Amino acid sequence: xxxxxxxxxxxxxxxxxxxxxxxxxxxxxxxxxxxxxxxxxxxxxxxxxxxxxx
Length: 54
Description:
- The protein is built from two helices and no strands.
- It is an all-alpha fold.
- The model has no long low-confidence stretch (mean pLDDT 94).
């Protein structure tokens, strides 16, 4: 991963945290972002059920 890719990923994470903090319903925003990440991981072949923290 190049330095520019790492910077872009870090900015995206920071932006997502800001979206959660500023959302009218932070819980709903977190759930939406979780769904998006699960789809992205599944598209890469990652079994997301095994990532759940109990």
